[in-house]
UniProtKB/TrEMBL annotation:
Pfam families, alphabetized: PseudoU_synth_2 (PF00849), S4 (PF01479)
GO molecular function: RNA binding; rRNA pseudouridine synthase activity
Protein name as it appears in the record: Pseudouridine synthase
Domain RNA-binding S4: 2-65
Keyword annotations: Isomerase, RNA-binding
UniProt KW Isomerase keyword: yes
Enzyme class name: isomerase
Protein family: Belongs to the pseudouridine synthase RsuA family.
Alphabetical GO biological process terms: enzyme-directed rRNA pseudouridine synthesis
Keyword Manganese belongs to the record: no
EC number: 5.4.99.-
Record-linked PROSITE patterns: PSI_RSU (PS01149), S4 (PS50889)
Domain of life: Bacteria
Organism per entry: Limosilactobacillus mucosae LM1
Length: 238
């Protein structure tokens, strides 16, 4: 038995919070009976409908994508631009998957996609503070003072960031650019770009190397693979 909103989220109807709203507003029936209480539990034998449409309980699927530049991190785009879900569909994935978290249009790297709504909500919740590591090509020559500022936190959008782990990888004095690896455990909007801008080094190119236990090892840009069972189990234990 599991909570109704969790079953809905895992079936890809909506996020758990959005599913709760559907229940409260009277859109959901269990075995033909209208249900509006959030404590309701269902089993695999119960028939659940949302606005008359039966709930299709898909088997959970998990994919890791090395997101390329110029692709939208979304299940669909109203302007017809290519999305990360399109990439997997072109490779034969038919499940109703969606990305966990976001990467900007021009940012590359690690991105998890799944139809496991419960896990997705867990991983995106800020209380878990999952470490994410980025490699940024930035304008200018990064100084030790700049790195210390990043390490101890900078103010963006009126709020100081939490401590981070920056590491200078290389500098190109001729072209006046630096390559920096930065590990953070927050998920604020455009956080990495704003942090570097706050210390005077706008980002020219950005890649997410890792997200928690997931990394890009053996996965070229634009390619994807299914998660291994030990990876799935590790994510669920976070």
């Amino acid at each position: 038995m599991e909570r109704l909103q969790k079953a809905m989220a895992e079936a890809g109807v909506a996020s758990r919070r959005a599913s709760e709203k559907l229940i409260v507003e009277g859109h959901v029936k269990v075995n033909g009976k209208l249900v509006t209480e959030l404590g309701t539990k269902v089993s695999s034998s119960d028939q659940v409908t949302v606005d008359g449409v039966p709930l299709e309980r898909e088997q959970p699927e998990y994919y890791l994508l090395n997101k390329p530049r110029g692709v939208i991190t979304s299940a669909h785009d109203e302007h017809g631009r290519k999305t990360v879900v399109d990439i997997l569909k072109e490779g034969g994935v038919t499940a109703r998957i969606y990305p966990v978290g976001r990467l900007d249009y021009d940012t590359t790297g690690v991105l998890l996609l799944t139809n496991d709504g419960a896990l997705a909500n867990k991983l995106m919740h800020p209380s878990f503070e999952i470490e994410k590591t980025y490699v940024a090509k930035v304008k200018g020559l990064i100084s030790n003072h700049d790195l210390e500022q990043l390490r101890h936190g900078v103010v963006i959008d009126g709020k100081k960031t939490k401590e981070a782990k920056p590491k200078l990888l290389s500098v190109d004095k001729q072209h006046r650019v630096s390559i920096v690896r930065l590990t953070i455990h927050e998920g604020r909007y455009h956080q990495v770009k704003k942090m570097f801008k706050a210390v005077g080094h706008p980002v020219e190119k950005l890649t997410r190397e890792s997200d928690g236990i997931l990394n890009l090892k053996g996965l070229p840009g634009g390619q994807w693979r299914e998660l291994k069972m030990d990876e799935i189990n590790a994510l669920k234990k976070l």
